[in-house]
Amino acid sequence: MDQHIPTQPSGPEAAHRVQQALAALRRGAAVVVDAADGPLLAAAPECLDEAGLRAFRAQAGRGGLWLACAAWRSPDGPRALEVSGLGAGELLALVDPARSLEELARAQRLAAAPTDADAALELCKLAHLMPAALLASSQLDCPWRVSTGEIAAYAGWVDSALIRVVEARVPLALAEDARIVAFRPRDGGREHLAILVGRPEDQAEPLVRIHSECFTGDLLGSLRCDCGEQLRGALAAMNEAGAGVLLYLAQEGRGIGLVNKLRAYSLQDRGADTLEANEALGFAGDERSYQPAAAMLQALGVGRVRLLTNNPDKLAALAAAGVEVVERVPHSFPSNGHNESYLATKAERFGHLF
Q: Options 3.40.120.10, 3.40.50.2300, 3.40.920.10, 3.40.50.10990; which CATH number does 162-251+288-350 get?
């Protein structure tokens, strides 16, 4: 392990190394994860073309190549396939979530993944890629190196503080007296937004809605979910109440990103529910963090809220962050003929309170 690579996170410098590694993965380059048993070379199969795979093999030297996927998990950790002779297209086909694990196990022998493969898979998650990684041992130097500790600490570091950037008046169709305050995360990533209706800072316990972005529902009016109705319904309720705060979090698809959400939709079309589809991709059922929501409320001077939600996780997250939820205000809408199973899964598998 190179001495200039720390084994533990060290604030902005460590975060910058993780950011560089994420960008490298997304453009098909290999990165090195400094792991307990030595450097582990990693690349994202969905971003590798044949030229990138040849470069990866050259960096790996004579050692074997392993393909690990978070969805191929046993009680002892992620599983992997030895894939030294396969091409880039074949690697991508292997991690296709439409291919069942049983089919894969019949065709290939799954073995324990290399040590600290979980850190490489987490790096792919952070890049909003499918959590699958091509892995090899390597002693070669690489410009993009991170430690397992830096990867583990990164998300918490990003969510632990937000920078208030700008506030502007934006009259809305459902709430003409509205302002938008933009907050930037510490990694310089996509901004979270606080939509202020009226003057919630003057109310002791304003209505608050934590709303994760949903491109398909919020913007396109998708009928697969109830997100658009919840967004517009919350703004209307706040306008009627005279004030409120809608926290719009940049966490598409329960935190897995838009592309992976569309992959999950494809699996749902084959019969999986929302939870099963996310797990088939290698994600948890819900990958979101509500630390940014609590940080925005604290920056706005809002310490007591009436929360518009059906999700008990949001209640617990705000309470843990020191924001007092004095009332849970139910926030549900009738099914529309397309989202019955989605709403049922929310209640039965995620514990939402309808």
A: 3.40.50.10990
